[in-house]
Specification:
Blueprint (H helix, E strand, L loop, with lengths): L20 H8 L3 E5 L2 E4 L1 H20 L3 E2 L5 E3 H7 L1 H4 L5 E4 L5 E4 L4 H11 L8 E10 L14 E11 L2 H21 L4 E5 L9 E8 L5 E6 L14 H12 L4 E2 L5 H7 L5 E16 L9 E4 L2 E4 L1 E8 H12 E2 L4 E2 L10 E5 L7 H15 L4 E3 L6 H11 L3 E5 L8 E5 L5 E3 L1 H13 L1
Parallel strand pairs: 3-7, 19-20, 19-21
Antiparallel strand pairs: 1-2, 4-6, 5-6, 7-8, 8-16, 9-10, 10-13, 11-12, 11-13, 13-16, 14-15, 17-18, 21-22, 22-23
Helix pairs in contact: 1-9, 2-6, 2-9, 6-7
The structure holds '5'-O-(N-(L-prolyl)-sulfamoyl)adenosine.
Length: 442
């Protein structure tokens, strides 16, 4: 891909309407464009990052055995009346009438729809557990959409649902998601910590939010420094091992605002370990038993007895994560944002010096590009006529992790190569490739 042909509408200055770094940067480098309040189009750079995040989320769902489906964005009001949430959900729900005057809605979440799918097909406990997920747009008519795609009205969510025969099995499912979320956020290079949370309109009494610490976050959090040292890498996808993992986390006081109790915080967390800050909620898991299965009559036969299935639901804010990663990775000191290599829109920018009537550097760049491609390295060639330092500035702004420069200082087969915030090295293409591949495999 040539930069001159890419659709990356960079603005000269930070847009005045954006209050936080992620919103500023996403508008500035043309990742998104607002279409109306709280509703955005995703332009190539932003869409690339979101798709990479989505793929990691998908792989980690598949890894614990959740099956992918795709439910529609538009739902019928009938099932919401069955569950009793049609009125409860209030003004956040976007209600629509079709030409037959039927009440429809743009799904804010899918507990009802997935319960309807389940009950029409699964009849025996022998088919349990079932775990289903989809990655789909949601709409919530937020009172105050703000911070760009962080709190918007139309957003992209991974939502999963589990169906089990009893509480014990349902907790096992819950804990599988607990582990899966830790793995997912780790691959995104984020340290997201689980915190006991309120359940709001989803319901139930067991719930964890996964939160990354950030001053610009909207959730107030109270936690214990030692929670960052819990290690989940040796956890097996097996009942006891997963129960243990959750216990290791729950040993530490870690709650959101609604659950906060000053006395308990001071009693359980020695002063030197107390963290009282703000965070961004990137995931939220719920256990709500038969809250939906009972009113909607989703039951299985268990040795001749009718049992309402026990359900949980599990969300990840896929589009919010794009902004959350920026908030977490932006370095105030260098004023540089470096994308984690796992989700970077491009791994490396190839930056040739362009001289009039001389296409040598472009030809060399093309060759390097093809070689990178053969090694699964995503690159972009900056074929514009800007000078090298302007080009470097531009890729620093976008946050591309590596830069390869073909300029005055190129000597034979040795090129200038640097990590976005690192020292310039002189390397052969092979050595540059192995550095990038090494970073990718970490
Ligand atoms: C869990 C899956 C649910 O909706 N039902 C299905 C449950 N949970 S939740 O906490 O309400 O949302 C899950 C995640 O979606 C993101 N999110 C948002 N992202 C951007 N803008 C919004 N307005 C918005 N609302 C929710 C969050 O990451 C949240 O954790």
């Amino acid at each position: 891909m040539y930069f001159s042909k890419s659709f990356v509408p960079i603005l000269k200055n930070n847009p005045a309407e954006a209050k936080i770094k992620s919103h500023q940067l996403m508008l500035r480098v043309g990742m998104i464009k607002q279409s109306s309040a709280g509703i955005y189009s995703w332009l190539p750079l932003g869409f690339k990052v979101m798709k990479k995040i989505e793929q990691i989320v998908r792989e980690e769902q598949d890894r614990i055995g959740v099956q992918e489906i795709l439910m529609p964005t538009i739902q019928s009001s009938e099932i919401w009346k069955e569950s009793g949430r049609y009125d409860d959900y209030g003004e956040e729900m976007l209600r629509i009438k079709d030409r037959q005057n039927r009440e429809m809605l743009y799904g804010p979440t899918n507990e009802e729809l997935v319960t309807e799918i389940f009950r029409s097909s699964i009849k025996s406990y022998k088919s349990l557990p079932q775990m289903l997920y989809h990655i789909q747009w949601k709409f919530r008519d937020e009172l105050r959409p703000r911070f760009g795609i962080m709190r918007c009205r139309e957003f992209y969510m991974k939502d999963a649902y589990s169906f089990d025969i009893n509480d014990d099995e349902a907790f096992f499912s819950y804990n599988k998601f607990f582990l899966s979320y830790l793995r997912t956020f780790k691959r995104l290079n984020l340290s997201a910590i689980p915190m006991a949370a309120d359940t709001g309109p989803i319901g139930g009494n067991l719930s964890h939010e996964f939160i990354i610490l950030a001053d610009t976050g909207e959730s107030k959090i109270y936690t214990d420094k030692r929670i960052f040292d819990v290690n989940s890498s040796s956890t097996l996808l097996e009942k006891n091992s997963l129960t243990d993992l959750r216990k290791q986390y729950e040993k530490f006081y870690s709650v959101t605002d609604e659950k906060f109790d000053q006395k308990e915080f001071e009693k359980k967390v020695p002063e030197e370990f107390r963290i009282n800050t703000k965070g961004i909620e990137v995931g939220h898991i719920f256990y709500f038993g038969d809250k939906y299965s009972k009113p909607m009559n989703a039951a299985v036969d268990f040795n001749g007895k009718k049992e309402f299935v026990k359900m949980g639901s599990y969300g990840i804010g896929v589009s919010r994560l794009v902004g959350a990663i920026i908030e977490a990775k932006y370095n105030d000191k260098d004023e540089i944002m470096k994308w984690p290599i796992s989700v970077a829109p491009y791994h490396c920018a190839i930056i040739p010096m362009i001289k009039k009537n001389d296409i040598t550097n472009i030809e060399k760049s093309n060759k390097i590009f093809e070689y990178f491609k053969s090694k699964n390295i995503d690159a972009i060639i900056d074929d514009t006529e800007e000078n090298i330092s302007a080009k470097i500035k531009k890729f620093n702004l976008i946050g591309i992790p590596y830069q390869l420069i073909l300029g005055n200082k190129t000597e034979g087969d040795l090129f200038e190569f640097k990590e976005i915030n690192g020292e310039t090295q002189r390397l052969s293409i092979e050595d540059a490739v192995s550095q990038i591949l090494k970073a990718k495999s970490n």
